[in-house]
Fold HID1 domain containing.
Amino acid sequence: MGSADSKLNFRKAVIQLTTKTQPVEATDDAFWDQFWADTATSVQDVFALVPAAEIRAVREESPSNLATLCYKAVEKLVQGAESGCHTEKERQIVLNCCRLLTRILPYIFEDPDWRGFFWSTVPGAGRGGGDEDDENARPLAESLLLAVTDLLFCPDFTVQSHRRNTVDTAEDIHSIDSCEYIWEAGVGFAHSPQPNYIHDLNRTELLKLLLTCFSEAMYLPPSSDSSNTNPWVQFFCSTENRHALPLFTSLLNIVCAYDPVGYGIPYNHLLFSDYREPLVEEAAQVLIVTLDYDSSTSSSPTVDGTTTGTAMDDVDPPGPDNLFVNYLSRIHREEDFQFILKGVARLLSNPLVQTYLPNSAKKIQFHQELLVLFWKLCDFNKKFLFFVLKSSDVLDILVPILYFLNDARADQSRVGLMHIGVFILLLLSGERNFGVRLNKPYSVRVPMDIPVFTGTHADLLIIVFHKIITSGHQRLQPLFDCLLTIVVNVSPYLKSLSMVAANKLLHLLEAFSTTWFLFSAIQNHHLVFFLLEVFNNIIQYQFDGNSNLVYAVIRKRNVFHQLANLPTDSQSIQKALQRKKKTPEPISRTNSQDGVSMEGSRPAAPAEPGTLKTSLVATPGIDKLTEKSQVSEDGTMRSLEPEASQLSPEGNPPAALSDGEPWSGEASHSRRDRRRLSSASSSGQWTPTPDWVMSWKSKLPLQTIMRLLQVLVPQVEKICIDKGLTDESEILKFLQHGTLVGLLPVPHPILIRKYQANSGTAMWFRTYMWGVIYLRNVDPPIWYDTDVKLFEIQRV
């Protein structure tokens, strides 16, 4: 039958279904088979021929027919899985049912009355088949998931058959060991099967259906209760799924082994269609959804078992019931870590390669899914995190992240990407090794819209962060705390900042210490505390190599003097706020000596009008995101958080709206004290008071810098007068050989703020991840125009 006839017949069946007012019997195979038996429709056809309005009409007006359609389609998948799909016709039926269910499921999920439908049992669909007692019956959802997992390891349909002879002795799908059919070499599997694009296409369709099953999460509003697990994911990742391990391994390996350059032939993507990429995207999306797990509520799934010969630690931790999270947390072999890290780094760098070798490789679009995957790996598997930081390979992850952050900074539709990039860097910065690695010289010349500089990866990080703060979208303001926390965390280890980076840090201090900025919001002074902490860490612990920074501090010494003499009387406060009304610019962008941007770079562009974006829930304040640890002499860390419980008053507003407790060198006041210190005016608006300014001004950690200025400024001035110097190279030479040993206050202990898992970030990741998946699935548009509740879809 031609494909036009086939489409026509399928459309006729749909029309019959929507116009029938009477229930059609489940036994009426002649009617139901029209939907899958004789048609050859692509998934795009199914979406075009089954309009949303008609699905909703059947749902409202003949619910029993919609129920029967779903039930019959699942039944066909179960039969296909049972038989092993040996004939072309059976395969076609399975794919047609797969496409139809992908189309219909979102409309089942959007109606609360239907949501339980797939979790109800269907009479006669017992676990052992036949008409047994109904307590033995499986819910439809379970039958569907088990059939799909069987079909994902179906010889000659989704995996290469290991038998070479005729169909008679075809493998029995129930006796095969699917661990021998893992899709790609990598973790726990050494053999790379011959690529087969038909298998890739079939896997992609089945994974699309899985993702659609899991997407019930999109139809529930965000809740702070992270315990509501997704029942589809929960069952799929449980011991009920006998293919859990090979499937987890297949998905992970297919993603990490993917090389868009394609067998080392540049430009080949212009000649050949790549069947692997859609599969890799689908695999990445299914993988991150199965790993949606709130680690803050459980004992951490990380174990430190002994190394054994298997890919997973044998010491069975009392880990999470979610087997995918469990397996991920137990990978421990160095070669597996190397394979994962190299794969993720290669794929994240792909868009950068585009900039200096245009068209040399196919440009991939799933970097956001990769960042979520990398986050999960580091969060759930501490051994992986330590492996990443053990060598300078971590810089192969850092540079692409800084590239994305810089590129997306002005684009409000990419605020989610900005957040996950910063979260990953915050997580890494809690480990000493990250700061140490940043001292490696930066020589890669990826064209980026930043000033040209010669220096280290630390310089690159500071310059990009400065660019985000001074020229990013205003929605990024909640990230300033995070960005500066990262700089504080790495500062004690930075051996030598370039002059460009040193000037950027001082420009930030200048911008953040203007009186109108300090007095215009209750937490703005935190940013000054962070920057002072950065300068103190570098002066106390890395003075010798940092003459550029010391010189910059001396040149801008008036900023420190102004801070020390900050006015606290009502009149000055009012005057500063008047000035703010005239200059609403968030941060002065002038006099930041930006110099020339790198050659070949394009300025960061705002979102195109009309771009779709999804809303995100608020992220927790930095005080909830991190916990303070003190670094001892021997480099070990000790948590400083026992008093935290008294700090946080009960009944906090959502964290992003809360003031965030002050925390830096400034001891925390309880909320009550702060309310007393800063009067709330009748409109409920906060207004700064002299007491409030005094309360934190007295704690500004300026002693070290004031002492440095006291010692060095007269010496530098003397050189200038003696030698009639205006040349900074002489002064820098003097500062390089100078020493402050014995002249500075006793060094303060190093404080690191380490990321800590919490349910607020777990919810943020869930909304971000599903938002990305919603927007990236446009062909076919699986969820488009359905009544999604987890986020709002907005147009720029």
Summary: The radius of gyration is 30 Å. Confidence is low (pLDDT under 50) at residues 124-133, 299-309, 588-592, 643-678. Residues 48 and 685 are 53 Å apart (CA to CA). The first strand starts at residue 121 and ends at 126.
